[in-house]
Design goal:
single chain, 264 residues, mainly alpha, two-stranded antiparallel sheet, 72% helix
């Protein structure tokens, strides 16, 4: 259930952020149901810190990118279960004991590391909405007359009608270039954010790699010890006599023969 809630939260977050570029229709519709939805999710995930942190991260992104107003985000964050430790407290202590700088750095990296689903979805959204990959824009650019780019060529034109036609082309080209510049600026900002997300993700994976490598070394040592004990047991077992090969045992002497009177 918690895994499903995280996926729904991630998907809703992506839909709202991407739709914001095209207008406020989706954000207005979502704003009607988000308070009840997040209140229910926070309550049902009170024991699932990973889900709560995922929601916290989404709300923080919405606040930074101004997807919703600050008051509305504050209202959504007010549904967060009380008494949970903040991120700063989680970095400094664990089970009430102070953490070393190294452990603090590892813990901080782990807590801030984005969910793999978030990374994958962000990369897919970047490529789908990339201005650089928009073939329609490329075709529109290819139809712009050469005179638009050449100031000196304009001075040679003396025909008024031709100048008016060229002015319309320049105006439409200016509008097209302005819109494309805005898209490129937005994409530049999004790619910077995704690059920072990937950096955190890679750092987390490196920490995980070191942890797994350390655990692997530990259990390889344990396996070698078990193998040594196993070899010793097998060797000791082989040194014992095989009772199954004894076909007949000599009868025990009579008690009288053992304790009989000595001969005169």
């Amino acid at each position: 259930k918690q895994w499903y809630q995280r996926r729904v939260a991630i998907t809703a977050g992506d839909i709202i952020q991407n739709s914001k570029r095209k207008g406020n229709e989706f954000t207005q519709e979502f704003s009607r149901v988000l308070p009840d939805a997040l209140s229910h999710t926070y309550k049902s995930a009170v024991e699932d810190l990973k889900t709560i942190k995922q929601i916290d991260r989404i709300l923080q992104i919405w606040k930074e990118r101004e997807i919703f107003g600050k008051d509305f985000i504050d209202k959504l964050q007010s549904y967060r279960p009380k008494g949970l430790r903040s991120e700063s407290q989680s970095e400094d202590t664990t089970d009430g004991t102070l953490m070393s700088p190294t452990k603090k750095r590892i813990r901080s990296t782990s807590d801030s590391a984005p969910d793999p689903d978030t990374v994958i979805r962000s990369l897919i959204n970047l490529e789908r909405g990339s201005a650089l990959q928009d073939t329609r824009i490329k075709q529109q650019f290819s139809t712009i007359p050469n005179e638009v780019w050449n100031v000196q060529a304009v001075e040679k034109i003396t025909d008024r009608k031709r100048l008016e036609t060229l002015l319309k082309s320049v105006d439409s080209s200016y509008e097209l270039l302005s819109q494309h510049r805005i898209r490129l600026q937005t994409e530049f900002q999004e790619r910077n954010k995704v690059a920072a997300m990937l950096k955190e993700f890679v750092m987390h994976q490196k920490e995980q790699l070191r942890s797994v490598e350390s655990r692997l070394t530990e259990y390889q040592g344990k396996l070698q010890k078990v193998q040594a004990v196993r070899s010793q047991l097998q060797s000791h077992l082989n040194s014992l006599p095989d009772l199954t090969t004894v076909t007949k045992l000599e009868p025990l002497p009579e008690p009288g023969s053992l304790f009989g009177a000595p001969d005169d």
